[in-house]
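User: Some background: our group keeps a shared notebook of sequences we're curious about, and every so often someone picks one and asks for a predicted structure to add to the entry. Today it's my turn. The entry only has the sequence so far, pasted here. Could you supply the structure so I can complete it?
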Amino acid sequence: MFNTIIKTSLISLVFNLSITSLNFFFGLYFLQITRSAFIFGTLTIIGPLVSLLLTPIMTRIVDTVAHKKILLTAQIVSLVFLLAYWVVVSDHLDVGTLVYVYILMIIIRVSEELFIVTLKASTTQLVEKHKYQRLNASVQSATSVANILGPIVGGLAFSLLTLPFFVFLIIILVGVSILSTSTLKLDPLHRIAATGKNSFLLVIKFIKGRPEILSLVIIAMFINLFASAITIGLPVLVINQLSLSKLVYSFLESLTSVAMVVGGIILTIHTIKDNLKIMYQSMFYFTIIIILFGFPELITHSDLIIIGLLGGLVVAFGLIVVFANTAMTTYLQMEVPENKQGGVYSIINAVSQLFVPLGGLCYGLLFDHFESYQVFISSGFLALVIIIGLLLLTKKRIIKRI
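Assistant: Of course. Here's the predicted structure to add to the notebook entry:
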């Protein structure tokens, strides 16, 4: 069982790292060629848009097809298109070949999204029920590491390697991921029983009939929106308003990533007894953290104290995100029928990812026109009102458990 958890986490790490670093590499390449921040930004928004558009199709696939087949197919499709790009286009990267990059990244993003949703829905086949949280936390740590290393690897590759050679390395990594996935032991039989009995509308109906699950979907949406207050506001606060160095900002940003990895490791050891309770408590603390981000510049002028306060807040933010994500995933795996898990995860992933660029756009405008402490404090209170409202709209039995 322990080997399954480690193997699954490593597969997630390798595949996600490959896609993240490749996307960052292409973004830098076309930023250099076109000098357009818009082109760079469009490569980052492909994933959320594709996820939203293909949610009904992914729901059908994940809930009716054998999971191992989906996991392998998603990676093999990525491998085939990477090979085609490597052979045909990669030696002639310029503005004229931009369309090929978009096609490649769309295909890979679709494959990645299908892979992520299917892997989450496969937890019930990979480990026993009391091991769900350990597997989720381990995969969460692996994903966090991939998100940390992806831009670093992509940036270094951009500086040191040619495009064809880097694409070739990504092809090797994806190949390793495919071979590792082929060794996972998944039960293909239970998928057959679900065939023809599900649809996207049925999953929507199921979510609407479970107010606590509906509230989690809405929370996933808003947490990505309000998290942008921190991801967009932190560099504005540190560099522009407090006039601290970029090194300080990099240090604080790295603390968030390290906290997320450490949080995942903690949850592989410590078992959460009530996932729903932890989820709502995490959201409450999340709103408090946003509010507190508005105070360091108001209460002191000491750079050292401000850095210390911000450091504590970003660590708390990273831990909260990991605890909330792990608790939500584990709760859904225990409460949602297996033949509907793919649909539920697809919907949550789609709506939450869509609100990342929307949050970035909204908070970019807000921080341009208001002081950072005003944005942080008002956002935190607004988020708190939303969380309390969701609690009041769910069943009394949930409120009693909190």
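Suggested note for the entry: The chain has 17 helices and no strands. The CA atoms of residues 121 and 338 lie 7 Å apart.
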